[in-house]
Structure formats: C-alpha cells, structure tokens
Design goal:
It contains five helices and no strands. With about 80 residues, the chain is mainly α. It has a domain at about 1-50. It comes from Hartmannibacter diazotrophicus.
C-alpha cells in the first residue's frame, strides 16, 4: 500500500489514481498490475495494436481446409521414411 502511495512522489497524481482505478475495475488490485497500468498510461500506447492492412501479395489465394485424412497420410509417410 505504501509503495503504491509513494508512486505519487515520482509520477503525476492523476496518472497514479487512474492506474489504481483501472486495476480495481479489472479486479486485480496488485502492485504489479498497478505499476503495469501506470507505465502503459505514461507510455501513451494504445491497449490494442494498430490494425495493419496486409498487401495483396500476402493474402491467401486458397483458404486451407481441415483434412485429417491427409494429415494422417503425411504422418504415416514420414514414419515409414524414418524406419
């Protein structure tokens, strides 16, 4: 508790208060969680990374399909090669 209160000596009081409130809302009011939240607030980074639009060259030409029989056949083929 004292360690959390002493954060005000090194950081803005409102930022510390906001980090404590976020930790309480998340249901994890621990020193580690509060420090993590405070550093995220001070860094100014968003919670979610920005959305990246992949270039056309990286898009799938054909969607992969789940084919267990093909997988099993490949496993059997690999096992016979190992012998």
């Amino acid at each position: 508790m004292v360690e959390i209160l002493s954060l005000v000596l090194h950081h803005d009081e409102q930022a510390v208060l906001c980090a404590v409130e976020l930790a309480l809302e998340a249901g994890v009011p621990t020193k580690t969680h509060i420090l993590n939240g405070l550093h995220r607030l001070l860094d100014g980074k968003a919670d979610k990374p920005p959305r990246i639009d992949a270039p056309q060259a990286l898009k799938l030409r054909r969607e992969p399909k789940a084919d267990i029989e093909r997988y099993d056949a490949l496993c059997r083929k690999a096992a016979t090669r190992a012998l």
